[in-house]
Amino acid sequence: MRRLSTTTTGPGAPVVVAALLAALAGLLLLGAGPAAGQDGEGAGPPGADACASAGDRGGRISVVTASGLLDPVLARFMERSIDAAEDADMAWLVFQVNSSGTVIDDDRLVDLIERFEASEVPIGMWVGPSGTRANEGMGQLAAVSCRVGVAPGSRLGRLGDPAVDAERFRPGFVAAMDRLQDGTVGADTALELGLADWDAPVLGEFLIELDGVETTEVEGPDGRRASTVSGESIPVFSKLPITDQMLHTVSSPPVAYLLLLLGLSLIVFELYTAGVGVAGLVGAGALVLGAYGLATLPARWWAVALLVFTVLAYTVDVQTGVPRLWTAIGTVALVIGSLFLYDGLALSWITLLVGIVGMLIFVISVMPAMVRTRFATPTIGRGWMIGEEGEAVTAVDPDGVVMIRGARWRARTNRQTPIPAGEALRVAEVDGLLLEVEPLEGAARDHRERRRRDDAADHPS
Q1: Contact at 8 Å (CB) between 92 and 121?
Q2: CA 152, 158, 163, 164 torsion: positive or negative?
């Protein structure tokens, strides 16, 4: 006890206490060092450790196809792919991309970029094969990937405003940001600017250049030797599951637009047909899918309202069977709604022609025939209609609409005899879906019958 008391209270006690405090302070500083380094200016970008340790990792390569607009479906799939690669302890995760635009908001893109940066598995991105592109959000994801390859003939760029601080991007992207915001570059220029690590015409050439990948020399039929991925580095391929693929497809601007028009048309079609509801069910399904696609896209909702109004306007003239004022109004609304449907995205002329012309054919040709079928008396053939009497719904001069047994029909006057609206008439001939009609009195038929009676009176048998 005395020895302990002497040690702690004697002349050397301050030195011992100071030494202990210094050791404790050193341990605290050592523990705080990494945290300070992470927040300091000299810190490396997130995910740098995964990129730096790529050559030391073993295991297979996960190759994931990510094509189409960067929408919520594709963003979730890319995040799930990173999770799966980490769980399987993959050596590399490579995204094979082809994306011309982004429809997720900046906050969602920031989350995806941060997931790339925080990945425990090094991420590579190959823009290929030839003719593909990585624009907007996909280009920014390339800027935070460990390795980037661009196939000859492919394009990288048009990044827009960075969703995160551009200093977090690869150095080549930072230096060329002014050029990349609105423009794109090809494979050769991407190499010169340091945007890509190497050009790779095919995926295999990109994979064999990755750090730590096992390769084997093989001899081709022409005697040339080439390297191929081998051993435990053999890639595992994956793509969107079928359900996600469907949702990703309906989120495409042309598909969502055409599904909307198809759904509206089939629902109206169902209202005027004597079917069993198949058209209505298909139309409802198309309308739901189209609405989902529009909800994920930058759609202008006033333009969507115009397209809905288009169908309502067409139904007014469908009742008469003849295109009139409401058909013209609906067509104008259809064109305007189609041209301005998306904010920042333009539909191709082929898509616009399919939508607009298809809708006009449906309304002018198909629907009037369906209306007549719905309200006409079921018969075999139309010969029974000759001699039937009815009424002119509109003036028939020379064409118009008539009512025969409660059903509306397109009609033409017999021998150009005009028939005012509301006047009684008789069916003289049937020409396909068109009726030739004549007034009950004063028609050519009456003159023929009167002449036959006169002839019979003059020449009795």
Answers
A1: yes
A2: positive
